[in-house]
Amino acid sequence: MDGRWEEVHPRRRNLIGALIATTVGATFMCCVALYNGTIAIGLANLGITTDATVVQVDRFQRGSKITVEFTAQSGDTVSAECTSCSSDLDEGDRVRIRYNPDNLAPGVEDAENHGARRVALFALAAVAVLLSTAGLVGWRLNRDRPSV
């Protein structure tokens, strides 16, 4: 750098850092909302609802991983991770799931829970908060700008 950054008042540097951080955070949350929104729309439009059996439950300190097995529309037996199933489920329990027959990669979700839609809505709310914060920080930067 050419030394101009050191000439900037420390409060102004902090505000610039906060503006960068909130903008990066908002961009990340936009990506999260887009990804989960795409999954939610795919499940809403193409999703098939069926019953599944819990075949594996891995409990961790912060959550769990639920694996279910079900018979797909094609007649094949499929095993997939349930991304929004309750952590209270045990092996052998039955659960109603929704899956996209064209793309099982993101997993399946509890038919009553709509996990991807909830995550997308939360991410959009976070984007709104972060962009509001960025606007406030930008306003403060503009207000504190030294007069020429």
Structure write-up:
It comes from Micromonospora purpureochromogenes. Keywords: Membrane, Transmembrane, Transmembrane helix. This is DUF3592 domain-containing protein. By secondary structure, the protein is of the alpha+beta class. The chain has one domain. The chain is built from 3 helices and 5 strands; from the N terminus they run H-H-E-E-E-E-E-H. The chain has a 5-stranded antiparallel β-sheet, with no helix packed on it. Strand 1 and strand 2 form a beta hairpin. Helix 2 runs antiparallel to helix 3. The chain is elongated and about 70 Å long. The model has no long low-confidence stretch (mean pLDDT 85).
Features:
single chain; 148 residues; alpha+beta; five-stranded antiparallel sheet; 3 helices; 5 strands; elongated; DUF3592 domain-containing protein; transmembrane; transmembrane helix
Unreliable residue stretches:
none
| Global morphology | elongated
State the order of secondary-structure elements, H for helix, E for strand: HHEEEEEH
Structural class: alpha+beta
Q: In DSSP terms, counting alpha (H) and pi (I) runs of 4 or more, how many helices? A: 3
In short:
The protein is of the alpha+beta class and 148 residues long.
Helices and strands, with pairings:
Layout (H helix, E strand, L loop, with lengths): L3 H4 L2 H37 L1 E13 L2 E9 L5 E6 L11 E6 L9 E2 L4 H29 L5
Antiparallel strand pairs: 1-2, 1-4, 2-3, 4-5
Helix pairs in contact: 2-3
